[in-house]
Amino acid sequence: MSDKPSLTPHIVISDAKVAIDFYKAAFGAVELFRHPAPGTDKLLHAHLVINGADFLLHDDFSTTMGQAVQTTEALGGCPVTFDLRVPDADAAWAKAVAAGAQVKMPLADQFWGDRYGQLRDPFGFYWSICQSISKPTPEEIEEGAKAAMLV
Question: What is the CATH number of the domain that holds 84?
Fold first, then answer.
């Protein structure tokens, strides 16, 4: 990671090693490094690059600090969606689904001009895959939103 200002997701996950393998298969992640936790099979820290962006993760160590487990499974889900803007949404979608991602919102052409869908990874995190396919006007987007929301 560089020293320039940035915003990088850093997630707590139930099985970091398995997650790294999934993110490589589903999203073409490149692993830069991992730091194992001494005396365990867990990872203290791992650094991936997904779609050109830094993505950090580590196994859950909450209980060693006297806290409740902080994984998405323990929390009942995650309200955050990681958005992947790609040149070919259909190919990226097929790759992620083949790797084990579950469809949350099917990939389809959307009123705001993207081919867009949402997936859930095996660890409870949500990912959207999107590709720009048109440039609707603000008025067209407003009309599309009304129709989609049945307003």
Answer: 3.10.180.10
